[in-house]
Structure formats: structure tokens, C-alpha cells
Design goal:
Layout lengths: L32 E10 L6 E11 L6 H20 L31 E6 L16 H17 L14 H8 L7
Parallel strand pairs: 2-3
Antiparallel strand pairs: 1-2
């Protein structure tokens, strides 16, 4: 490759260097799959939800770089937990102005908000590309958000709760526990 940049006379209109252009058009799309499980408890006195354990097993086919795949899933799980338990966009009900328009007002999860994640994978290579790899960028987020909310519903199912809208604010869960404004 270095030889391509050695100054030698070239025919008119020909540039020095090496270049290649190729396109790959797979016969179909690939979809990863997985299973996410959360263990969550809700404090009866305060309504505060605490995530005790989170396990995710995903299948992204052949993992070309397992460390990057684990990082993508870890980040996605953190994002999904934040969406379910901490983050919320709030607007003024009278004029529609955003009340959470900056990071001074918009809560984001911190490392202390998470338990240690247990991540694993299975390998089912896809037949539609030569690498047998599948995309995994959204697997953590898509699995974790409903998993967390389902864990909260399960924690409160003894009170007849079958549905809770996100975000899992402590005051919302407290009202459900104490029978004043609960969802079912």
C-alpha cells in the first residue's frame, strides 16, 4: 500500500493511491433476540423502587468483538433503566413549556442507581451475511425498559396491580400501595 504513494509518473487523469468501492446487499434483515430479567422491590413506606438485580442474555449471532457487544448491551440496559425509573420529560400544563429543558432539571441515572448487570450471550449465526453477525445496538434498551416496569407490576401484583405507566416515580408507587390513585 505504501508503494501506491511513491512519486512516479502516472498517466493523465490517474490519481495516486488505492481505492475500492463495494456494496453488500443481504437477502434479508437480521434480528437479534434475547431475554431480560429484573428483580425489583418497592418500599411500602416511601414507594421508592430499588433495582436489586438485572440479568440479560442476548443473541447477536457471531460476536466479532465481544467486548464492544457487551458495552453496547450494558449501555442500552443503563439507558432503559433510566427511562423506566429516573428520566422524565415534564411540560407546564398551562403553556406547554418544557420544565425539564436542561440537565439542571432533567434527572439522569448515575452509576450508583444500578446493580451489577449480569450479561451473557448465546450464538445463533444468521445465514444472511458471511460473518453470521446480527445487530445488537438496541437490544439493551428495548429489553430493559419493559422488563423494569414489569418487575414493578409484579412487585405490586398482590395489590391487584396489572399495569403501571412509566416513569416509576416513588410518589406514583406510594399512591398505588396506599390505594389513592393506583393503576390496574
Amino acid at each position: 500500500a505504501a508503494y501506491a504513494y511513491v512519486p512516479v509518473p502516472l498517466p493523465e487523469g490517474l490519481e495516486p493511491g488505492l481505492s475500492e468501492e463495494a456494496f453488500f446487499e443481504p437477502s434479508n434483515n437480521t434480528y437479534p433476540f434475547g431475554c431480560h430479567i429484573a428483580m425489583l422491590e418497592v418500599d411500602r413506606d416511601t414507594g421508592e423502587p430499588t433495582l436489586l438485580k438485572f440479568v440479560a442474555v442476548d443473541d447477536a449471532g457471531n460476536l466479532i468483538n465481544p467486548l464492544i457487544v457487551e458495552g453496547q448491551i450494558h449501555g442500552g440496559v443503563a439507558q432503559g433503566i433510566g427511562q423506566a425509573m429516573i428520566e422524565e420529560v415534564v411540560y407546564n400544563k398551562e403553556d406547554g413549556q418544557p420544565l425539564t429543558g436542561s440537565f439542571m432539571d432533567y434527572a439522569l441515572p448515575r452509576a450508583t442507581d444500578f446493580p451489577r448487570f449480569e450479561l451473557d450471550n448465546t450464538v445463533t449465526p444468521t445465514p444472511v451475511n458471511p460473518l453470521g453477525a446480527k445487530g445488537v445496538g438496541e437490544a439493551g434498551t428495548i429489553g430493559s425498559t419493559p422488563c423494569i416496569v414489569s418487575a414493578a407490576v409484579d412487585a405490586l401484583s398482590g395489590r391487584g396491580v396489572t399495569h403501571i405507566d412509566m416513569m416509576l416515580r416513588p410518589e406514583k408507587l406510594w399512591r398505588i400501595i396506599h390505594g389513592s390513585g393506583g393503576q390496574s
